[in-house]
Each structure stands twice: as C-alpha cells, then as structure tokens.
Design a protein that fits this description.
The structure is a homodimer of 213-residue chains. By secondary structure, chain A is α/β, with parallel strands linked by helices. Chain A is 49% helix and 14% strand. Chain A has a six-stranded parallel β-sheet with strand order 2-1-3-4-5-6, with helices on both faces. In chain A, helix 5 links the parallel strand 5 and strand 6. The radius of gyration of chain A is 19 Å and the shape is elongated. Chain A binds a DNA duplex (30 and 30 nucleotides) through helix 7 and helix 9.
DNA sequence: CCGGGCGTCAACCGTTCGATTGATTTTCGG
DNA sequence: CCGAAAATCAATCGAACGGTTGACGCCCGG
C-alpha cells in the first residue's frame, strides 16, 4: 500500500475535475486513476476494473446519481476504495447520510490544497478525515444530544413544508390525517425552536436538515 | 488586442482556481494574469496595476465580497476588463443583477472546457456570451412580460418571508404597517401563482428570486 | 417488563393568514 | 401632462394554522 496512491475523481463540473487533477498530479506519490462526471459513471469505471485507492467525490451532482447513493454502492463493492466526499457547503443535509453510507472523510471545496493532499494520504491509509468545519458541525449535532435530530417522519414532513404544501396536502400526500401532520409539525417546531411553518423551513434549510434544490 | 489574452481568475475555491488555471494555460493565446479568492482581493489586484483583458469570476463567494458587487465595482474602473461570470446554478437569483452590474457574459461551471475557451475569446473581443441555459432563462423572463419580476419591495419582503418572519415582524423590520405587508404579499402570491407564504418561499427559491444562503 | 420515542388520531380555541375592496401618494415614462 | 406602476394604509371575513391536551399501539433498550 506504500506505492502510488490511485485516485478516481468524480465531479460533474469539468473545471473542478481539472483542478483536482492538477492538484493530484502535483503530488509525487499520487496519480489520477480516472475521471467521472457522476456517480453512475464512477460505478461503471469501478466495475470495469478501474481500481483506485481513493475516490474523491462531489456530493452535489446535477443530473446524475447523487453522491450519497453512489457512496453507498461503492462501499458495497468487494474490496471497496476509500470514499472522500468533497463538497461545497459544510451545512449540507447529507453529511450524516454520507458518513452512514460509508464515506471515509469529508472535505470542503474551499479547503487549501495541502489539506486536500493530507486527506488523500490519510484516506489511503484507511483513516477517517473530516474538515474542521464539518467535524465541528457533526460534533455539535452529537453534543447537543442530537437535539435538532428530527425523526425520519418529521424530516419528511419538513421537506414537504419546504415545497410549500398546506397541511391538508401533506396529509393526502402521506396518507395520514391532518391532525397527525399538525402533531408532527408541533414536534418539528419544538425541536427547531420556531413557531411557524415558514420559520421551520428557514431553520431546516439553515441547519442543513433539508436541501434547497 | 490580438496578442495574449490576460485572464484574472476569481473564485473562493482553490480547487476551482486550479482547474481554471489549468484550462486557461492550455489555450495558446490565453494566459492567467493572476488569481483572487474573492471580490475584494480582485479589486486590490486591479488597483495595484494588474491589467487583465477578462475577469473570470464566481458569483457565490462564501465570506468575501459578493460577485455582483465586485462586478459593479470592476466595471466602474477606468478602462475596465470584461467580466465573465462563472456560476454553479442557472437558477441563480443574481443573473439579472450581474448583467445589470455590467457583466459581459454568464457561464455555468458544468460547461465543457471548449465552451469556456470560446467564451473567454468572445469576451476579450467585447462580445456578450451567455450559456444557453442562462440565455434561455433570461429570454423566458423577458418573453413572459417579466411576469415573475417582483418589484424591489416585493422581493425584499419575500426574502424576509424566507427567513421565517411573520407579517408583524416584517412590518416592524421595514417600518411599515402590517396591512402593507399583506398587500405586498397578495401581489407576490399573484405573480408567483401561489396562495401561501410557504409556497411563495418555495417558488421564489425555485425561480431564483431569492437565494438560500 | 416497563419507560420512552415514534407515529397515528381527535377536539378545542385563539391567532394569524389570505382575499377583497378601496383609497392616497409618489414616481416614472410616454 | 396624464396614466401606470409602486408603495403605503384600513377594514372586514372566512379559512388555515399553532398550541394544548389526551389517547392508542408499536417497538426498542435498559
């Protein structure tokens, strides 16, 4: 494992792929094993015999498969590579999801190149690396007793809130009664410390519990 | 003007800057004139005598000066360079604002490298270049009679809505009566084709009239 | 085995919101 | 100079929303 570290770059932006490749090629003991524009293409490459040590992957990818799903499938492969998530926002709703999906680490795109290099090396050694802002966020969530941790159902309803649906519409969408929707909402308001649906959407967005898109 | 095209790269992500530099350096008649991590740094460079023909600038820049403001100030300089906006989303709330601020063109980060190269050349010749999705969006907005074009006040109120404020809070924030807030909201709902505040936030977000932050 | 979180539902009540109508002032473009 | 759009305010009314209380079954973990 002490030879060249082979890295597969996955990002839907050609510009970012080029930047990553430039940075990676600059490191003496690292080489790019390939590039993919989305999760599906990355999986195809892996199944076609490309064997990187580390996958550097963006979470937000416009059209193609989402990064979390791709991570899940990659780590489900036999002898999977380490998956390093590279994302734009530390407030992303999917940090936790990505970690649970088996991601080895989490980096921010505005990280300095040295940090990226260190992370790639660490990931190749099987270590977990979290960018400081990300780590702080995760810790904050754990330390606070997982307080802002909405239940799955509550998160689902918050998502529908963010689409602008009224209680009745939500109830029909989920095949539950309006009363139940209201109960969930009361819980959501309590956990988020707000007192209106619109404020809940704002807080949920800010806390990264739901994603804009 | 037929010599080397000098390009100043402005983006808060080191990875993106590297990607842009790699792409730019690959073009025979283009060279990078410098890099900046935000609008303020770009302005400093320009005032310190860096004289690029084209400024390639991201709109979303975390901490520093926002791209629109930077564009405004750059185009206000004597003999200003062309400003090419490079952004992630075609749904950005600031497309129009950037154009009005004097941007020469608008590119998406997921554009293929050739498109970027063509845009830089066009910008250096003083031509306006809009990425097809961006152009379509602008046209759509103009063609539809500027329908979703909220008035400044309405946009402001929509922004406060998205922060989760109640009508009374908005009225106090803006030093107007609650009745006025409601009147504005009715207009907003009409223009967006919705019938609730939460739906208005969702629609405003989707239409890029307000930004998530 | 039992407490507790989760998901479901109901009834009540006060408040906020959305819709409507109508009015005044300013500003801007034709 | 006149009309249109924007911004301001008021009053009303029904519908939607938020808060509260109470209830039931499920399942997990101590």
């Amino acid at each position: 494992m002490s030879g060249l570290i082979r890295v597969l770059l996955v990002d839907d932006h050609p510009v970012v792929r080029r930047g990553l490749r430039a940075l990676v090629d600059e490191l003496p003991d690292v080489e790019a094993a390939g590039e993919a524009a989305d999760g599906a293409e990355a999986l195809r490459l892996l199944e076609d015999g490309v064997r990187p040590d580390v996958v550097l992957m963006d979470l937000q990818m416009g059209d193609g498969m989402h990064g979390v799903e791709a991570t899940r499938r990659i780590t489900a492969l036999p002898r999977p590579p380490a998956v390093l998530i590279l994302t734009t926002y530390s407030t992303d709703a999917d940090i936790l999801a990505a970690v649970e999906a088996g991601a080895t680490g989490y980096l921010l795109k505005d990280a300095p190149p040295e940090e990226l290099a260190a992370a790639v090396h660490a990931a190749a050694r099987g270590e977990t690396v979290l960018a400081p802002p990300v780590a702080a966020r995760l810790l904050g969530r754990v330390r606070s007793g997982g307080r802002p941790a909405l239940s799955p159902r509550e998160t689902e309803i918050l998502g529908l809130l963010a689409e602008g649906l009224a209680n009745r519409q939500i109830s029909r969408r989920l095949f539950i009664s309006e009363a139940t929707v209201k109960t969930h909402l009361v819980h959501v308001y309590g956990k988020l410390g707000v007192d209106s649906r619109t404020a809940a959407v704002a807080a949920g967005l800010a806390a990264g519990l739901i994603r804009p898109v």
